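Schema walk-through. Below, the input block comes first and the output block second. Nothing else is stored per chain. Lengths vary across the set, and this one has 132 residues.
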Amino acid sequence: MQILTYLRLFYDIAKLKFEIFLANANHRKNNQQYFVIPTSNGKLAVLSARQIKHFSTHPYKKTRKFVNGQYKVTKYYLLPKGIEHTVVMRDCFYYTPYKIGDKTTKISKQVKKKKSLEWLTFTKKHRTNRAV
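--- output ---
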């Protein structure tokens, strides 16, 4: 049982490190700030600031239901509507600097370690709360 726990821990750490690698590679390529954020199904996504703005203002899915003689349209957004940049920086698990060589928005080692521990507690919580 303990071996399985260590394997899950190793897998979660490897998954986070791979997403951090992708964020850094995209940052070097496009010179934009990237964030590693969780999705609703417990996975990680690497999004730029432009993509975050797009996903918070444009719905990815619309459904229509016929209720009381009228159609009711429900819009689903990937991110909360009108989310701010500072909220994303606080809630993400990793972020790259704003531009290449920018020292003010660079993530420190203490914050990086804290966010890594947050990711591990998030995966543990998500794993225990999901339906079997």
